[in-house]
Amino acid sequence: MNQFEVPTKEEVTSNNQAIFEKLEKNLGFVPNLYAYFAKNETALGDYLTLQNRKSTLRAKEREVINLVVSQINGCRYCQSAHTELGKLNGFSEEQILQIRKGQAPFDDKLDALARFTAIVTKFRGNVPEEAKNEFFAAGYSEANLIDVVIVIGDKIISNYIHNLTGFEIDFPLAKEVEALTL
Length: 182
Hints:
With 182 residues, this protein is an all-alpha fold. The chain folds into two domains: 9-51, no CATH class; 59-165, AhpD-like. 62% of the residues lie in helices and 0% in strands. It has helices at 14-27, 32-37, 43-51, 59-72, 76-88, 93-100, 108-122, 129-137, 142-165. Helix 4 (59-72) packs antiparallel against helix 5 (76-88) and helix 4 runs parallel beside helix 7 (108-122). The longest helix is centred in the C-terminal third of the chain and has 24 residues, at 142-165. The N and C termini lie far apart (36 Å).
């Protein structure tokens, strides 16, 4: 038995119960990751605010970042959740597997984003000028760079929470892919 249990709606604060109700209405259920955040009085609301902030990046671009970061960090929960969200954003299963490997050969701009995200994540922001230049040459701006880092940070938070706790994955399990090599 896992020592880290996902709380039920009845086990969280009234503020978090209200958030659960909104999640149930919008998503049809409360994902275990969000429910686990509710063990802390303010973390769920704070995390959802971060996740839902206005961005210069399209939803499809944010999913590229989420998939790459989750792969690098070995988070099976987020790999699985973002495989489903990637499909909802128009990616095929094959494209999702390519993205998780840090590439998107089917789209030049998304390919640059996937490669940049992989390098930034793996080397914790200490990237060669060439990587930044390729990112900008693909049409991204400094405002986009800031948003990429914010989405990476968002995903690191959820990856680490699940990697530390290992609570049940409540999405269809994503296929395994080889680790990224950079």
